[in-house]
Automatic annotation (TrEMBL):
It comes from Streptomyces olindensis. Pfam families: Pentapeptide. Signal peptide: none annotated. This is Pentapeptide repeat-containing protein. The lineage of its organism: Bacteria, Bacillati, Actinomycetota, Actinomycetes, Kitasatosporales.
Length: 212
């Protein structure tokens, strides 16, 4: 584990919750290890550019947190509530985000290489230029999400989209199927039909068919 010098980095803004503040302070004074924030309420904190590698945010509340440029390598955020959080240019490599809430979160230019996003609510999320290479995207709600210029690499892409989902400039390759929802119904798109839907919206993604 990397050692951390006291005073090397501190949050620009602490959360309002006293228990979360104390946990953060104890961690900042520790010599090594990730932050144990399981179940804590860190909403509204500014943790931008912090090294939070291998931390535990399981079931934590991080609503409207500023995590711009933060390092979250191999952290566990399963079930975490990140609604409205700013994760611009954050490193989320190998992070577990299963069952997390990312509604209206900003992940522009974030690195989610080999991250796990199963059962994630990402309605209205901003993911411009986000790297989803080797990520698991299963049962993710991407309705009204901005995926412009996002990069994928043979990703499982079993997600829900609607006519508000933007994919212009998105590149790489994905496996389907995708569920397309409109005002009155939903239908599954895969293979050539999914490819056509992506192309019509300016995406450059290639839909992979057959075995993985």
């Amino acid at each position: 584990m990397r050692r951390r010098r006291v005073g090397q980095w501190t949050p620009a803004r602490f959360p309002a919750d006293d228990v979360a503040v104390q946990r953060l302070c104890d961690w900042l004074n520790a010599s090594e290890g990730g932050l144990d924030a399981v179940g804590l309420d860190l909403s509204g904190a500014d943790l931008s550019h912090g090294d939070l590698s291998e931390s535990w945010f399981t079931d934590a509340k991080l609503r409207n947190c500023n995590l711009t440029g933060a390092e979250l390598y191999r952290s566990d955020a399963q079930g975490a509530d990140l609604e409205g959080a700013d994760l611009t240019a954050a490193s989320l490599v190998r992070v577990n985000l299963d069952d997390a809430v990312l509604r209206y979160a900003t992940l522009d230019r974030a690195n989610l290489v080999k991250a796990s996003l199963c059962g994630v609510d990402a309605f209205g999320a901003h993911c411009r230029g986000t790297r989803f290479m080797g990520s698991s995207l299963l049962e993710v709600d991407f309705r009204s999400a901005d995926l412009r210029d996002a990069v994928f690499e043979r990703n499982s892409f079993q997600v829900t989209v609607d006519n508000g989902t933007q994919v212009e400039g998105a590149s790489g390759s994905v496996f389907g199927p995708v569920v397309l929802v409109d005002e009155s119904s939903s239908r599954e798109l895969s293979g050539p039909e999914l490819q056509a839907w992506i192309r019509e919206r300016g995406g450059r993604l290639h839909v992979v068919t057959g075995g993985r």
